Amino acid sequence: MKNFVAFTFGYTAVGKSTIAKKIAGIPNTKIFHSAVIRKQLNLTPQTPEEADNFFDYRNNLREKVDRLVYSKLTENAESALRRGKNVVLDAGYFFSWQRQMVYGITQKFGAELFIIKVKCDDELEIKKRLYERKMGFNSSPLNETPSWNTYLATKQITEPLEKDNFGDLELNILEYDTIKKKLSFLKRYSFSERTGQIERYIL
């Protein structure tokens, strides 16, 4: 099978990290989390209040940090692909420029690409997840965005996948509903063994 690159796409607290970790269970796969990289670069807000301000994309505080973090994600992915690994990238990928970085390295290494759009339409469930993050804010880097404002901001600023230039990539776009536990294909390039494997690990 070809190596693959998979990245998550979706609003804050919809369940991206949970799905990313499931896919990362596939043998020979490396996972990279934007939250962990932010912590490694010492760029993580120290309190829920700081996080509320920092992760509200509407205030334009974080573009410089995002450039550093998403560049590091891409660098890590390229290194893993060079070593013959599959790659899972756990981040929001809210903007087209962030996603184009992934398309570039995927094409460079001839890997198969999976975009996993994660959704949760139950906003009461979102609020519950955000509260749990706030209570466990210091227990994990993955709890770095515990704010309802962050969720609302990501709904407002996320650029649709239709804006992207996919070129001639071998591309599969899947959508997973974390409430209904339902997986569907928005765009299907192949019915390969790899595609079936991704489906099984998500479900």
Please tell me about this protein's structure.
This protein has helices spanning 16-23, 34-40, 48-54, 63-82, 96-109, 123-135, 148-157, 193-202; strands spanning 4-9, 29-33, 86-90, 112-119, 171-177, 182-187. The chain has 203 residues and is of the alpha/beta class. It has a single domain, classed as Rossmann fold. The longest helix has 20 residues, at 63-82.
Task: Note the topology.
Layout: E1 4-9, H1 16-23, E2 29-33, H2 34-40, H3 48-54, H4 63-82, E3 86-90, H5 96-109, E4 112-119, H6 123-135, H7 148-157, E5 171-177, E6 182-187, H8 193-202
Parallel strand pairs: 1-3, 1-4, 2-3, 4-5
Antiparallel strand pairs: 5-6
Helix pairs in contact: 4-5
Structural class: alpha/beta
CATH architecture: 3-Layer(aba) Sandwich
Mean pLDDT: 90
Strand content: 15-25%
Under CATH, the homologous superfamily reads P-loop containing nucleotide triphosphate hydrolases
Lateral arrangement of strands in the main beta sheet:
2-3-1-4-5-6
| The CATH class | Alpha Beta
Low-confidence stretches: none
Task: Give structural attributes.
Rossmann fold, single chain, 203 residues, 8 helices, alpha/beta, globular, 6 strands, 6-stranded mixed β-sheet
Question: TL;DR of this structure?
Answer:
The chain is of the alpha/beta class and 203 residues long.
